[in-house]
Amino acid sequence: MKIFVSPPNSLILSDLIERFDHEPLTVMKRIEKRIKTPEIDSPPLNITSAEPIEGLKYASNEVPSGVRGRMAILAPMIEEADAAIFVENADYSFGCVGCERTNELIKYLIKKKCIPILNVDYPSNSEEGRSMVKKIKIFLKSLK
């Protein structure tokens, strides 16, 4: 199954999902395709001028352009998702958690899909970390 990951660039979640034979939907894999595609001429942005316009499908033109740009990359992943894992209150070093408007829109679109969702809190110690991994493991096994 394809699992949407939030924060969308979490290497930790991506690794856990792959270990349980699912496909993580992450920004890193999308950006990798863009970097290896010769027609993209604007690194480090790695988006075409048409993609923020595509983002208008998900967010109006009144929202900040960064939200539309992010949604141009994230929304197709949401459309592919069979399930989702959200880590709440994550530390900034855990992943891309800086754009709260985008995060709110992502959560809304995922909930609207009516797919299985796991919400876990970011751990503050080793015991909570083990508990988080256990919850993710149980969730991923239940999807088979």
Would you give an account of this structure?
The protein has about 140 residues and is α/β, with parallel strands linked by helices. The chain has one domain: Rossmann fold (3-Layer(aba) Sandwich). It contains 6 helices and 4 strands; from the N terminus they run βαβαααβαβα. Strands 2-1-3-4 form a 4-stranded parallel β-sheet, with helices on both faces. Strand 3, helix 5 and strand 4 form a beta-alpha-beta unit. The N and C termini lie close together (about 10 Å). The mean pLDDT is about 80.
Gyration radius, in Å: 15 Å
Helix share bin: 40-55%
Number of helices: 6
Q: What is the arithmetic mean of pLDDT?
A: 82
What CATH calls the topology is Rossmann fold
β-sheet strand percentage: 5-15%
Number of domains: 1
Structural class, please? Answer: alpha/beta
Q: How many E-type strands?
A: 4
Gross morphology is globular
Low-pLDDT stretches: none
Question: How do you describe this structure in short?
Answer:
The chain is α/β, with parallel strands linked by helices.
